[in-house]
Amino acid sequence: MYAVFETGGKQYRVAAGDKLEIERLDVEAGQPHTFNQVLLVNNDGQIKVGSPVLAEASVVADVVEHKRGDKKVTFKMKRRKGYHKTIGHRQELTVVKITEIIG
After folding, report:
1. Total-model pTM
2. Which of 22, 47, 45, 44 is nearest to 33 (CA)?
3. Exposed/middle/buried for residue 17 (C-beta within 10 Å: 0-12, 13-18, 19+)
4. d(CA 49, CA 55)
């Protein structure tokens, strides 16, 4: 059984027991979180597709930890003008473990 859900503007295909890094959630580590934006559920060949979401489906996950992603470096430069600029960014992430898929 697997499901496709949306969070943080991205879609994820998950099954029970999967661990994944998603955009930062406002939930403390160790607490459960329910994702209600489920787009598709496949239960042993029976596929349910929402338009756009399934009302009765949800994905339950435990929040494992909060962390920061790898640093992305952007370098801007205009030749012969003496202009150069370095910009860095580290994305705030949440690690979740999928416990069950309802629907």
Report:
1. 0.85
2. 22
3. exposed
4. 11
d(Cα 50, Cα 55) in Å, to the nearest integer?
Answer: 8
Question: Can you read off the two tokens belonging to residue 36?
Answer: 């209600």
| CA proximity to 19, closest of 61, 57, 70, 58 | 61
Using the predicted structure, report yes or no on whether residue 8 has a pLDDT greater than 90. yes
3-state secondary structure (DSSP) of residue 1: coil
pLDDT number for residue 98 = 97
What's the half-sphere exposure (Cβ side, CA atoms, 13 Å) at 30? Answer: 0
82 burial class (0-12, 13-18, 19+ CB within 10 angstroms)? exposed
Query: CA 16 to CA 62: how far, in whole Å?
Result: 11
pLDDT in tens, 11-27: 999 999 999 999 999 99
Please spell the DSSP secondary structure of 4-50, one letter per residue. Answer: EEEETTEEEEEETT-EEEEEPPSS-TT-EEEE--EEEEEETTEEEE-
Are 17 and 1 in contact by the 8 Å Cβ rule? The answer is: no
